[in-house]
Amino acid sequence: MKRWIILLYFFALTISGFLGITAWQSSRYAALEREVKHFEADQEIWIESNKRLIAGIAVLSSSGRIEKIARDELGLSKIRPEDVLQIRIDSKRRTP
Known about the structure:
This protein is mainly alpha-helical and 96 residues long.
């Protein structure tokens, strides 16, 4: 009879232990899930920011804008093809 009482206490403690561990694990899972949602929201913000920055880079690096700055602010102009002087060096012939 005493053996049955000890066995009954053991099962009662074991079951309550499993229930406690399950509750602890569930709360831990919920906390991790909240953290993941927070990270996903941060990621969306970063993605949108990157999209805006890429669009800004595309606008700032357009050839029309660069040409206007070169002409108006720096006083540069396009060179005519006939004004280009090309020098070619033959790498096969070497002078001593």
